[in-house]
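Deliverable D4.2, example record:
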Amino acid sequence: IFSPRGTAPEFRWTTPGSPPKGYATALDHSPNTVPVEKTDTDQPRRQYRKLTPGEWWFHVRAQHVDGRWGPAGHLKLIVED
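Output generated by the structure prediction step:
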């Protein structure tokens, strides 16, 4: 995670094996969210801007080239004033 100012985090990740077809991501306040099975990026990175202070959770899951979806990964992020 990288954010020079604290309110614009950029998430980057890696996956084992061959590159997946794409990824589904979500950012919210729940630790248990599973992103819907819809690709929203084909790159292993995602950036958000102007997050308000508080506890946030980033969620990501990969879609295999054969169409199957993998499990979600979760990461807690604290945005301070």
